[in-house]
TrEMBL record:
Residues 588-627, 636-655 are annotated as: Disordered. Transmembrane segments: none annotated. GO terms for biological process: glutaminyl-tRNAGln biosynthesis via transamidation; mitochondrial translation. It comes from the Eukaryota. Subunit of the heterotrimeric GatCAB amidotransferase (AdT) complex, composed of A, B and C subunits. Keywords: ATP-binding, Calcium, Disulfide bond, Hydrolase, Ligase, Metal-binding, Mitochondrion, Nucleotide-binding, Protein biosynthesis, Serine esterase, Signal. Residues 1-24 form the signal peptide. GO terms for molecular function: ATP binding; feruloyl esterase activity; glutaminyl-tRNA synthase (glutamine-hydrolyzing) activity; metal ion binding. The keyword Nucleotide-binding applies. Residues 1011-1182 form the Asn/Gln amidotransferase domain. This is Glutamyl-tRNA(Gln) amidotransferase subunit B, mitochondrial.
């Protein structure tokens, strides 16, 4: 009997490190060591006397000012005015970060101590540039591993961009591998896990705003490894903290990754065993991996760009006659090697614990696979001893197993996990994420970041790339650098990357401020100017970390998602190489090279080279190759996105040259009925188990099926919406099979004579079909049949299964498409479209991800030049639970079948499964044919006769279908295709009805004012945007808020009404906003007040009156007078605008403009200054009045 297991209860996250500063291999130079001479101030303690205050120092850089604004739990530890070109830090007293930054701009350096609990506290440092240099931005930087210490060195680069910059010590002072501080200290663990960073950000922002007397315009974050995990967790729990985060190699899955380190050690240890791989042999493995995998990307340059395309043959490393030599491995050692590359799954449940290490990452393995002392990595056993068990002598050899991971998931020490993939709240406020990871990372496996990105895509689908970009950097190790001899471009301005090149370095040396080369600048442009980040340029230098030696290589790195079948565009595979005396170019083809015979290992490798200018400041990337046709279609799709004419997938993995994919889909949907299909028992989804069960549901002797005619109504509505022909007579059949969830030993279905046939569904580009399918595609529906559901199984420990028979007999329809789908994206779009159609006719209980819909896909492939024209052998993938899972599973199975056939194998008909986070399907069982199921007519049930009058009546009363409604929303109300579809999908279809209610009420109010209300005018677009986006912010915030007064959801009814935000209340707010009697800020505040129950329905206007919230905007003359007052004494700021006008600055000083606008907002009469009006007048006066006066010397 097939064993059924339960999923692991929660996933947790976080971990590791980025710099192992005290764990070197004897006789080698530690890869983490920074070749940076300590500055003169590096030995100074944190409380050393401040430098003399420069003449440009602001008056606020003093103890009295900061002490007066600190909360009671915080105290000022140190304050120093740092002169231009100066240094600041704590030197060797800071164990984790002993190197102080140099070459700082003039700034105020503040150190604060915060008591976080009776037994814990944390410190943070804050760099505040001079007020005239502040850009209005705030930057927080992260830490590494278990390190405790203020990361002054990583704070420095942000100050050169005029950003106020902050870092926390996370509540202790220690190295990246030291966990001794955590034992029996739950509060300190919490500080490390999340509290210290969050508190630092909140208080740091407060101090920054007070110091400058101005609100922060934009907030950012940058961190790698543990720092990457910190940033992800902060936006998951507190989405308002940042506008953009730059996350490198995030150690996000703490409970799994740290335990995985111990597992890796157990693979390789003890160091006396035959299977032990000593450190010197890792270089032998690395060399062989490069030899076999270098050309997989089509470029022989010593850098592995596409490890996923390489089939590594480790047997070529086998020693002759199994003899041990320094240049080969034995069979037991090869077995260890295979385990390290493979993903590790739970020994009992089969759930993924952590994906394996990547080909090309071997140079850093020594730090995590067990050292010469015979113990696993301190990142593993330190976590278990001091975080998880609070037992410094815990014996891993006797006690470690996969069940330790289960315990870590339940306890989550420090609540450090960053595994919330639904970050809608962050997305809805316009937040952006750039995640990068080195493909040669031998500490935090690169596949872990791919897993996080994939799970995020489960929630957002194609929308993921609108706010979340992932860059995989070939040849880069953990956070920075590349293995010796590989010399891959790696610097993109990420965390730690400037500091490892020198204490006074910032950005990417030679390319400071370039959004193409510096990811932090690119992130800022994306957030503030909407300039999507599609590629970055990574850089390396001739002499390692010495930028003055000149650029060695540069490579374009494109945002991409690696999954089997994804091919990166050629322009992102080119590397520029600068070598003395070399002047050759290498031309790349767009397709991967065919498989080749491996040559003897003695053959030398050859690097292809390409010249770059000697001056790094003028170096540019090599020109991109002409984009393939599919790429051109994709770019056209983005340009037409608002109109919905081209809604296209972001990946280019829809086809494989020389092969045709064929997909058929079976969708099972629970019908919206009051009773089960063959018994009067009520349908139940949330009631206690086994409380709605009739005798027939349990197949008790003597019980018989009793067809419930009412179940036909939603079934026929669904079939009509799918353009099917309703059959006058249909019959039920028995499908025989034995399983514990089917008491009768058979399922009643309609195999031979279903009630509906010959339908179709039309998919458009806006639905997300593949670009290869053009503007629209019609997919045939073979039949729609009624059948009964099975019992619900819940796995328990000890191979025990609990059964809930409430679900037995619940009516389903099975929708079977014809095998007419040839692209994975189109298959996912079809399932999504079917869900919308079923919801629009009220036929289905709930959607795919809520369990009311289940999709099975049948996949086959055949060669495009096959003269027979026969379809290939199909396999079935069962129970896919999300739209993205449908697409990913099809891609994985397609690629598996193609690989099998190309190797001369045979595809067998079988049933396969798909798990969240997988990149390949897994075999479940051999495929049973019709004979095995022994279909037969059910002798206890007569034929079902459906009258033509019933069909006609249901057809007439079906209402508006999704395509018609989407067209109306786009044409009449000027909504984008994306917003139109979102309105239709939210709240089970109730949000769109709510919009119509709001619009009706708003138009009544406008008409009562005597305003002419044309159909589809600006007021309707305003209402739609608020119903979609502003209401969404309420629910997104509530899902992450710790405020007990914040409610959950909108409690939307099917008729489109919310008791929390009545449609009339929102209409009243929009009436005043549209009439310009209140500001947008006031309108948003009013919406929150309604949501919290502070404004009863019908009392919005009275509330505005009582609180004096009416908007009376200043006149142009009053704005001009206010601008004149604000500009007084700001000659230095005006000088920035003059330099821009004279062509001495590339970018308009928008930050300085907003600084002055902020002063106008604060200095003007409360409630009468609007930011847009102030900016408009101020900009005009700068150009027409102030700059001419400055040029004349007045």
């Amino acid at each position: 009997m097939t064993r059924i297991t339960a999923s692991l209860a929660g996933v947790v996250a976080v971990i590791l490190a980025i710099v192992i500063q005290s764990h070197a291999v004897p006789g080698t130079l530690g890869w983490w060591e920074r070749d940076i001479p300590p500055p003169a101030s590096s030995s100074a303690a944190a409380t050393s006397p401040a430098e003399p205050i420069p003449t440009t120092s602001p008056d606020n850089c003093n103890q009295a000012f900061f002490t007066s604004i600190l909360p009671p739990e915080a105290s000022l530890e140190n304050i120093a005015a740092v002169p231009d070109g100066g240094s600041h830090g704590e030197g060797k007293a800071n164990i984790a970060y002993p190197t102080d930054p140099t070459n700082l701009p003039a700034l105020c350096a503040v150190t604060v101590n915060v008591t976080s609990s009776p037994s814990s506290s944390y410190r943070f440092g804050l760099f505040l540039p001079m007020p005239t240099e502040w850009s209005g931005r705030f930057l927080a930087v992260g830490n590494g591993g278990f390190a405790g210490g203020i990361n002054w060195l990583d704070m420095a680069p942000g100050t050169h961009y005029g950003m106020a910059t902050v870092s926390s010590d996370l509540g202790h002072n220690g190295s990246v591998i030291d966990t001794s501080w955590a034992i029996n200290q739950p509060e300190k663990k919490t500080d490390w896990g999340w509290r210290a960073l969050h508190g630092t950000v909140m208080l740091g922002k407060k101090l920054t705003a007070a110091y400058y007397g101005s609100d922060i315009t934009y907030s950012y974050y940058s961190g790698c490894s543990t720092g990457g995990r910190q940033g992800l967790r902060e936006i998951q729990e507190f989405p308002d903290s940042f506008n953009g985060v730059l996350v490198g190699a995030p150690a996000w899955w703490t409970s799994h990754l740290n335990n995985y380190f111990t597992q890796l050690g157990m693979y390789n240890l003890p160091n006396t065993s035959d299977s032990y791989i000593p450190t010197p042999l890792l270089q032998v493995v690395a060399d062989e991996v490069v030899r076999q995998c270098d050309l997989a990307d089509g470029l022989q340059d010593g850098i592995i760009i596409r490890p996923d395309l390489c089939t590594f043959n480790s047997s070529l490393l086998l020693c002759p006659s199994n003899e041990t030599t320094p240049t080969c491995l034995t069979n037991p050692q090869l077995s260890t090697l295979a385990k390290i590359y493979s993903s590790h799954h739970h020994e009992t449940t089969g759930e993924l614990i952590y994906p394996g290490l990547t080909l090309g990452s071997e140079a850093q393995w020594w730090a995590i696979i067990g050292n010469t002392n015979g113990v696993p990595s301190p990142f593993g056993i330190g976590y278990q001893r001091n975080f998880l068990f609070d037992n410094a002598t815990w014996n891993y050899t006797a006690l470690y197993s996969d069940f330790v991971v289960d315990l870590a998931e339940r306890l989550d020490p420090g609540q450090a996990t960053a595994d919330h993939y639904d970050i809608s709240a962050y997305k809805s406020r316009g937040g952006k994420i750039i995640l990068y990871h080195g493909l040669a990372d031998g500490l935090v496996p690169t596949k872990g970041s791919e897993l996080y990105y994939q799970r995020t895509m489960q929630y957002f689908g194609d929308e993921t790339t609108e706010f979340f970009k992932m860059f995989l950097i070939p040849g880069m190790q953990h956070c920075w650098a590349s293995p010796a001899g590989v010399d891959a471009p790696w610097n993109i301005g990420g965390a730690f990357q400037a500091g490892v090149m020198g204490s006074g370095v910032w950005s990417v040396p030679g390319f400071e401020g370039s959004e193409e080369h510096d990811a932090l600048v690119a992130l800022r442009k994306w957030v503030e100017e909407g300039r999507e980040v599609r590629q970055l340029v990574a850089t390396s230098w001739r002499a390692g970390m010495n930028a003055s030696s000149g650029v060695r290589r540069q490579r374009k790195v494109c945002a991409r998602y690696l999954l089997t079948g994804h091919i990166a565009s050629p322009g992102c595979l080119r590397a520029r190489v600068a070598l003395p005396g070399k002047n050759t170019r290498v031309a790349l083809g767009g397709a991967p090279l065919p498989s080749r015979q491996l040559q003897p290992r003695q053959h030398a490798r050859h690097l292809t080279t390409e010249t770059s200018p000697a001056n790094p400041s003028t170096t540019t990337s090599s020109p991109a190759a002409a984009a393939p046709f599919r790429k051109q279609l994709k770019e056209q799709a983005k340009a037409l996105k608002k109109s919905g004419h081209k809604k296209k997938k972001s990946s280019d993995n829809q086809t494989v040259p020389g092969w045709e994919l064929t997909v058929g889909i079976e969708i099972h949907a629970q019908l919206n009925t009051a009773h089960k299909l063959f018994s009067p028992a009520a349908t139940s989804f949330n009631d206690p188990p086994n409380t709605h069960v009739a005798p027939f549901d349990l197949a008790l002797p003597g019980s018989q099926p009793l067809f419930q005619p009412a179940t036909l109504i939603p079934a026929v509505r669904a079939a009509l919406a799918l353009n099917c022909s309703i059959q006058p007579v249909s019959r039920f059949d028995r499908k025989h099979y034995f399983h514990w969830d089917q008491p009768s030993g058979y399922q009643i279905t309609q195999f031979y004579e279903p009630f509906a046939k010959d339908g179709f569904i039309t998919l458009y580009a806006r639905d997300g079909i593949a670009a290869e399918d053009g503007e629209e595609i019609k997919v045939g529906i073979k039949q729609v049949q009624m059948e009964q559901d099975t019992a619900k199984t819940t796995a328990q420990p000890g191979d025990v299964q609990w059964l809930d028979f409430n679900r037995v007999g619940v009516p389903l329809i099975e929708i079977i498409t014809l095998p007419e789908i040839h692209h994975p994206a189109t298959a996912a779009a079809l399932v999504r479209k079917v869900q919308m159609v079923l919801a629009s006719v009220d036929a289905c209980v709930s959607g795919l991800e809520e369990g009311g819909l289940r999709a099975d896909v049948n996949v086959s492939v055949r060669r495009t030049d096959d003269p027979s024209g026969k379809l290939g052998t199909r396999t079935e993938i069962k129970n896919l639970s999300s739209f993205k899972a449908v697409e990913d599973a099809i891609i994985a199975e397609r690629d598996r079948q193609i690989k099998l056939l190309e190797e001369g194998g045979e595809v067998k008909g079988e049933t396969r499964g798909w798990s969240l986070g997988s990149t390949e399907t897994r075999r479940l069982r051999g495929k049973e044919g019709e004979v095995d199921y022994r279909y037969m007519p059910d002798p206890d049930l007569g034929p079902v006769v459906i009258g033509g009058d019933l069909v006609a009546r249901l057809r007439e009363t079906m209402g508006v279908l999704p395509d018609q409604e989407a067209d109306q929303l786009m044409e009449r109300y000027n909504l984008s295709a994306k917003d139109a579809l979102s309105l239709m999908l939210l709240d089970g279809g109730a949000r769109i009805q709510y919009f119509y209610n709001v619009l009706d009420s708003l138009e009544e109010r406008l008409a009562a004012d005597g305003q002419v209300v044309p159909e589809g005018a600006e007021h309707a677009t305003l209402a739609a945007n608020w119903c979609l986006h502003e209401l969404g912010k309420l629910t997104d915030s509530s899902s992450t808020s710790s405020d007990p007064d914040v409610l959950e959801g909108l409690a939307m009814t099917p008729l489109g009404e919310s008791p929390l935000v009545p449609s009339s209340s929102l209409a009243a707010i929009l009436h005043h906003l549209y009439s310009r009697t209140i500001t947008a800020k006031v309108a948003k505040d009013l919406l929150w007040a309604v949501y919290r129950g502070e404004i009863p329905e019908g009392e919005t206007t009275g509330y505005i009156d009582t609180h004096g919230l009416w908007f009376k905007e200043l006149s142009e003359e009053e704005y001009a007078k206010l601008a004149d007052e604000v500009i007084h004494g700001e000659d230095k700021v005006l000088g920035e605008f003059l330099r821009w006008k004279q062509g001495k600055m590339k970018a308009y000083p928008q930050g300085k403009l907003m600084f002055l606008v902020g002063k106008m907002m604060r200095g003007g009469p409360e409630g009468r200054v609007e930011a847009a009006g102030a900016e408009r007048v101020l900009r005009r006066r700068i150009e027409e009045v102030y700059l001419p006066e400055l040029e004349r010397g007045e």
